[in-house]
Structure formats: C-alpha cells, structure tokens
Design brief:
Length: 317
C-alpha cells in the first residue's frame, strides 16, 4: 500500500483522476455501469469462447486479478467486463498488464492506473511520482520518482467507444450544471427581518423544480437514463419503456464493444506466447441482445408488446 506525493513537476505529466462528481452524475455512472443484472450473475453460461489454443486461453483468463477473485472463467469475464466498464465510465480509459511468474509458470493479468500513462510512437510510458510504500512487517519505504517504459506486448488498453463518449460528454455537461444549482432554490427565500418577520415569498418553487426536471430529461434523451424517477406523473408508461430500451441498448453496446476489444487485446498479447494464437469472446443467448431490444422497440411503437415484457427483458436478463 502506498501514498502518492504529486508535486509540481508530477502535475505536468499526470492528469489527476477526477472521481468527484455531482449527485446526478454519480447516480448515472452507478446505473450505467450495471451491465449484468441479478439473473445474469446466477447463470453459468453467459459467454462463448472460441480459441485455437485452450491451454493458453486458460492460462490468460485463469489468472486475471479482479475485485472479487471469481473462480470460473465465466465469472472472471463478467467481473472483468464490469471493472473495465466502470473505469471507462469514470475515467474514459482502462489499462491491464501481464506479469510473467516464471517460478509458478503462470501469467497474471492486473489493472493499473491510467494516470501518468502516455503513448508515444507506439511505446507506453508511465510517469510514477514519489511515494511512500507501507509495510506491515517493517518500516515504511520512501520510493523515488520513476519513468517506466512499459512493454507494449504486455499492455492491454481499453478506450470508451467514440460514439458513447460523445453522448456522455454532451449529457454530463448539463448534469454538471444541474448538480451545481441543485439546491439553488434556497437563494430565493426572502430574508427575515425584525420589521418583517414573516416575509411573503412570490417565488414559484414548482416552476423551478419543473424546469430542472425538463432539463434533466432533455439532457438524458440520448442515453435514456430516467434519473431514478420511477413515480413521476408527468410521463406515460410508453415514455418510460422507450427510455428503458434506449438506456439498456446503450449499455449492451458498451458491453459488446468491451468484449470485442478484450478478444482483440488477448489475441494480441497471446501472440507473445504463441504466434498464431487467437481468441474470440461473445455473449450467449443467456444475455440480452441489441437486436432483441430493437425488435421490442418496433413492437412497442406498434402496440404489439406489453410493458411488463419489456421491463422483464431489460431487468431480468
């Protein structure tokens, strides 16, 4: 465990990871990162893996370090996709590195911070500031500043898809304004004075709240997020279902992009162990699909499907 000390020189090379966000932005990030619902987690056949070397595939996927340290390959992939999604939503990028354990003859895959990492002429360079390494069995150790040249053949990089990145950027600009003025209505309360202890307030707070709600729904039109407003009387069930389909479809597009990128990155780094190695990971029919959501959207517009069927498909699969 270490304490990083970012000085003036370090700040020139390291972009601080801004995890602080407002109320609406944080809620959206939490909701959008839930790519797999509870029914998915209990299923044991979520992904189909096609590889020309099962032993190397097991070697790469069997030792990926994830938050909850799952045991099966299926659980590992699900957890890995969720972790990558969280990093992309919060930071826009995720990095993983392959560590060769020559003694155990194993390969460990672990994530590392994107802070201070730049890519120059195909080479990954990491600027590591001064830090204090803490140890439980001996005194803490002061480590100097480092510039590391990372082996590109062992680095896996994931970026947010451009289309989703642009969509989130446009939405989050409005969410930031709403969060900034979330409690702005308190500024419109008249001041109580000795001469007027009960001043009349002519400010219409209903108009204020209605304006904020309209701005929220306009900002989230592309993403489909409902702002966790499930009981509003201002929109219909049709409105809610169309929004739900749009939101879930964006999630599935991100999930499928991560799976595709994971396949290409594992194939690339696996070639360092076997030149012709390839692997392809895709979702099975146990997972919801973009194609099915598109069908439900068309049927909903034609009034050929019920609301419960749409809700069940989006939340239970």
């Amino acid at each position: 465990m270490g304490d990083v000390k970012i000085g003036l020189v370090d700040s020139l090379f390291i972009k601080r990871e801004r995890l602080e966000s407002g109320f609406n932005r944080e809620m959206f990030n939490e909701d959008f990162a839930i790519l797999f619902h509870s029914m998915n987690r209990r299923s044991g056949n979520l992904f189909e893996i096609v590889s020309n070397d099962d032993e190397l595939m097991q070697k790469l996927l069997g030792n990926i370090m994830t938050r909850y340290e799952p045991h099966s390959i299926d659980e590992t992939i699900r957890e890995l996709v969720e972790e990558i999604a969280q990093s992309l939503i919060w930071l826009g990028r995720a990095y993983y590195f392959l560590h060769d354990d020559r003694e155990q003859k194993e390969v460990h895959v672990a994530s590392f911070s994107s802070g201070g990492v730049v890519r120059l002429f195909g080479t990954h360079i990491q600027w590591v500031p001064k830090r204090r390494e803490r140890h439980w069995d001996r005194e803490d150790e002061e480590l100097p500043r480092e510039i590391r040249i990372l082996d590109a053949a062992k680095v896996m990089r994931f970026d947010m898809p451009i289309s989703i990145k642009r969509m989130l950027s446009a939405q989050n600009r409005t969410l930031a304004v709403l969060d900034k003025h979330q409690f702005g209505e308190t500024n419109f309360h008249p001041q109580t004075t000795h001469e007027n202890p009960n001043p009349t307030n002519h400010f219409d707070f209903r108009v204020w709240r209605d304006t904020q709600e309209r701005a929220l729904y306009r900002a989230t039109r592309s993403t489909g997020w409902n702002g966790r407003k499930y009981d509003s009387s201002k929109h219909s069930d049709f409105f809610d279902c169309h929004r739900l389909i749009r939101f879930r479809r964006n999630q599935l597009m991100l999930r499928d992009d991560i799976l595709g990128r994971l396949s290409s990155e594992l194939s690339r780094v696996g070639k360092g162990y076997k030149a012709e190695f390839s692997i392809e990971i895709s979702g099975t029919d146990e997972l919801p699909s973009v194609a099915r959501l598109n069908e439900l959207e068309v049927k909903l517009a034609r009034e050929e499907v019920g609301f419960n069927e749409i809700i069940d498909y989006c939340y239970k699969r």
